[in-house]
Amino acid sequence: MDVKSWNAMKKKNAGELGLKFFLRIFEIAKKLFTFLKNSDVPVEQNPKLKPHAMTVFVMVTRYALLETIKETVPEMKNAWAEAYDQLAAAIDSCDHV
Model pTM? Predict the structure, then answer.
C-alpha cells in the first residue's frame, strides 16, 4: 500500500467511495449491536459495547473497507488488508497493556 494506491482511489470519486464504505459498515454493524435496542443503560456505559466495538472494527470495518477497495483498485486489496491487520493488531496490543 502506498501513495499511488491512495491517489488511484481518490480519482474514483472519494465522496462516493466514502459513502459506500460507511453504508457497508452500517449495514453489517446494525445486525451486531441488537443488544443496545432495549437497554436502559446509556450506550457508552453498556458493558457489551467495548468488545462488540472491537469486533466491528476488526471484522466488519475490515470487510467493508476491502470490498470498497476491491471495487475501486482491486490490485491493492491485499496491500490494504495487510496494513489494516497490522493496525488492528497494534490497537489490540495497546488494549492489553
Answer: 0.62
